[in-house]
Amino acid sequence: MADQDLLETDQPLLVAESLSKSYGRIAACRDVSFSLYPGEVLAIVGESGSGKSTLLQLLSGQLAASGGQVSYRMRDGVTRDLAALGEAERRLLFRTDWGFVHQDPAQGLRMAVSAGANVGERLMAVGWNHYGRIRESASDWLTRVEIDVARIDDAPRTYSGGMRQRLQIARNLVTGPRLVFMDEPTGGLDVSVQARLLDLLRNLVAELHLAVVIVTHDLAVARLLSHRVMVMKGGRVIETGLTDQVLDDPREPYSQLLVSSILPP
Amino acid sequence: MTAMIDIADANKTFTMHLQGGIELPVVRGVTFHVDPGECVVLSGPSGAGKSSILKMIFGNYRCDSGRIGIRHRGEVIDLATAEPRQVLNVRRATIGYVSQFLRAVPRVATIDVVAEPLIVNGMTRADAQARAGELLHRLNIPERLWQLPPATFSGGEQQRVNIARGFISELPILLLDEPTASLDAANRAVVVALVAEKKRQGVAMVAIVHDDEIRHLIADRIVDVTSFAAAA
């Protein structure tokens, strides 16, 4: 594939430098730095309260950092400091080049409007106005996430949990983003539904060459989806490396504890 | 350097923090090389560190010190110090690993499990599936199983799917961890033939094989791992 060589020479898409966030005396996130490249999937793992969700919010510009900065290489190739973007620019980024998949689909969908409108809305936000083409694209995306097109006019509140999550993914991907943030995307789902969603995500991420930052406490999810892992504890990144290195040969005491705590299937 | 793999003085110790920080030395002073078209078999009793060495060459286990030189696209990359992205590139373009067990993704059909390494490297799905079919056929996996995910297959069938997936690639280095462990005589012979073909194509291989007969058939050289015993 042509992108193989790209992988070795390209520039990072997202760069975090010494990111920190404190709430009064409590440091939720301390001195986090990394670079994320196009097509790369980074999993942030750790227990509740480790700072992983705070980090995700800092990276996606939803929370202002107390220190450090996040920069993003825009579609025009210019790398910009997120904090220096205007509100309108940031919102445009969120509607076009970024996606955000919430653990609870109700947070990322409009539950009372149809599935087709949920997907089409993002297209309209970037200037699509031809009803037929929007509907065609929405149907296409529903098919890609394995939702029966016959359900296109139904509202997601009539959908099962797994279908809602797949719809949220379609809504995010319809504008062709290059970077998707995911917060425990398989969190509230049954195991069998999880497996299907993971398989779907894995294929879409590879096919669309997406960069992903995924927060998960489930190491199996990290193993299946991610190239790299960052282990967080107490707001700090305590270990980072290739996913299989960190999971098969963890070095830090806490990483070893995490890995050894997995129940055998 | 013309060797595909050139390992010098590589060391590996596990520190078990949950067991009071016990140090578990695995291997020390690992030094050997593998030329193109050569199959080096690692020998030694269970627990001597053979699989660990294979994992160090794949970048799965990190080295504490020493060097794992890999010839990757005409350059030498030291996997002991390489960035994660470089290790991934080396795995995509240079090193294949055939483990003992298939780590299958749910729902993916056998034919696609086997074809995937070719598709990732740019071959069309149809061509890749045709090649996958040939290999599955050679390894005696009946065609009626090709569309099923391998999760429900027997151990031997899964291993053959894994072998097909490992041998389908055109990577210049292959690491084989007991590729014939649960195979019958007919399928062991197929694996021996596949290894011979890879040698003719100039592929450098490192293998762990417990079966003496197979070892004699595929080994060009034997490296005795007990000489790297880490016991102080």
From TrEMBL, chain A:
Pfam families: ABC_tran. SMART domains: AAA. PROSITE patterns: ABC_TRANSPORTER_1, ABC_TRANSPORTER_2. The lineage of its organism: Bacteria, Pseudomonadati, Pseudomonadota, Alphaproteobacteria, Hyphomicrobiales. It comes from the Bacteria. GO terms for biological process: organic phosphonate catabolic process. Keywords: ATP-binding, Lyase, Nucleotide-binding. It comes from Bradyrhizobium cytisi. This is Phosphonate C-P lyase system protein PhnK. Transmembrane segments: none annotated.
From TrEMBL, chain B:
Residues 5-232 form the ABC transporter domain. InterPro entries: AAA+_ATPase (IPR003593), ABC_transporter-like_ATP-bd (IPR003439), ABC_transporter-like_CS (IPR017871), CP_lyase_PhnL (IPR012701), P-loop_NTPase (IPR027417). PROSITE patterns: ABC_TRANSPORTER_1, ABC_TRANSPORTER_2. This is Phosphonate C-P lyase system protein PhnL. The keyword NAD does not apply. The keyword DNA-binding does not apply. Keywords: ATP-binding, Lyase, Nucleotide-binding. Involved in beta-(1-->2)glucan export. Transmembrane domains (TMD) form a pore in the inner membrane and the ATP-binding domain (NBD) is responsible for energy generation. It comes from Bradyrhizobium cytisi. The gene is phnL. Belongs to the ABC transporter superfamily. Signal peptide: none annotated. Pfam families: ABC_tran (PF00005). One of its GO terms (molecular function) is ATP binding.
